[in-house]
Amino acid sequence: MVRRSVIVVGGGVMGLAAGCALAGRGAEVTVLERHTIAHDWASSHGMSRAIRHEYGAQAVYTEMVAHSLVLWDELARETGRALYTETGVLTLGRADDGHTLPGFDTMRAAGLPVERLNAAECERRFPRFRAAEYDAITYNPTGGMLAATECVRALAERLRRRGGTLREGVRVARVEPAGAGGRVLLADGGEMRADRVVVTAGPWVHDVLPELALPVRATRQQVCYFAGLPAETFGVGAFPVFLAEMEYYGFPLHGPGWLKAGSHIFGPTADPNAGYPPVEEEIAGVREFLRRVIPDAADAPLALVDRCMYDLTPDEDFILDHHPGGAGVIIGSGFSGHGFKFGVLIGELLAALALGEAPAFALERFRLSRFAR
Predict the structure, then answer these.
(1) Secondary-structure breakdown of the chain: helix, strand, coil percentages, each rounded to the nearest 5
(2) Which residues of the chain have pLDDT under 50?
(3) Residue 318's CB: how many other CB atoms inside 10 A?
(4) For the purposes of burial, counting CB atoms within 10 Å of the CB of 328, is it exposed (0-12), middle (13-18) or buried (19 or more)?
(5) Most buried in the list 109, 162, 219, 353, measured by CB within 10 Å?
(6) Helices vs. strands in the chain: H and E counts, helices first
(7) CB 336: neighbour CB atoms within 10 A?
(8) How far is residue 299's CA from residue 296's CA, in Å, rounded to a whole number?
């Protein structure tokens, strides 16, 4: 067999996972990262990301989560790193929101041990919550949080073990199809060619694929961490990962002993090459939510405001497809603030696209052509 050369542009969770999957199939892989892995501007940095099966009626995502949990466990065992903490997932919703109850039905059909609670049962089980305003509440004990930066480091370790190369501090100016392969033009004037180029540039996708005008918008998001809360009521085992109407979310104490809470409401369009300071109105919005639903946390000291850009598509589904100008370039983009949990699986799917293999999941819903329709 001819050993194929592959360049992966973008060293976040998706790019590193794709590099690992390709190297595991015998490809000669180089991953290019413009900054450093898990840098502070990245969509793949930080203490935690949720991994949840709660996807409304979209059963394919629920199935993909189950598969992803297995893959993350394999990576944790291989690298000896603690990547996943099971906390359970509490969903606070409304009967007419089109998400919570269809998600309950989907999870039950998938065999997950999910329960439906009323407000009183929720407050007995999780006494820090005030749930009276919600009439659709579910609790799934399977799910929790991934240690985001640790996951990225584990993938970098796997990549190197499999013979791949990671080059940090390399800025890519442009990616183009070139014959049956791809060409990578570097900002310093250099050029690289490979049999395949996989683009996983996150919010920077327009910088490297400007001619495509992909329907992907970089949005400004921020996450709040609160200190000084008691572990016996806010720690793992007492307090779950939660989702409230798919607008607010939170995690139990982790890292230095901080509670994480943030808004999933999509922020304004961001320039991924320009930083942004914390927005006081958004912090106030998180505190107001806590005051209504988790009042004991509402006045906790604010320890950190972290940023996290989304690369958002109009339908919030991913883009996993070949470049329309040449099959030698493969695009992984539009992860829309919910992609991290699928990272290792997305890497496998992108590797299958690059090497012409049958993917583990059908990719029709992730094709670029859906936007033309």
Answers:
(1) 30, 30, 40
(2) none
(3) 23
(4) buried
(5) 353
(6) 10, 22
(7) 20
(8) 7
Please tell me the CATH code under which domain 5-45+149-213+314-372 is placed: 3.50.50.60
Cβ-Cβ contacts under 8 Å for 10 (sequence gap 6 or more)? 31, 32, 33, 34, 199, 200, 201, 202, 204
- Give Cβ neighbours of residue 199 (< 8 Å, ≥ 6 apart): 9, 10, 175, 205, 208, 209, 323, 329, 330, 331, 332, 333
> In this predicted structure, what is the pLDDT of residue 275?
83
Task: Count Cβ atoms below 10 Å from residue 180 Cβ, excluding itself.
Answer: 10
Report how far residue 338's alpha carbon sits from residue 340's, in angstroms, rounded to the nearest whole number.
Answer: 6
pLDDT recorded at residue 3: 85
102 Cβ neighbours under 8 A, 6+ residues apart: 56, 57
* pTM of the predicted model as reported, rounded to 2 decimal places: 0.97
Name the fold adopted by 88-143+221-308: D-Amino Acid Oxidase; Chain A, domain 2 (3.30.9)
8 Å CB contact between 130 and 296: no
Segments of the chain assigned to CATH 3.30.9.10 = 88-143+221-308
**Any bridge partners for residue 6, and if so which?**
29, 196
pLDDT at 43: 84
75 phi-psi bin (left φ>0, alpha ψ -120 to 50, beta other): alpha
**CA-CA distances (angstroms) from residue 184 to 30, 190, 201, 328?**
12, 8, 13, 12
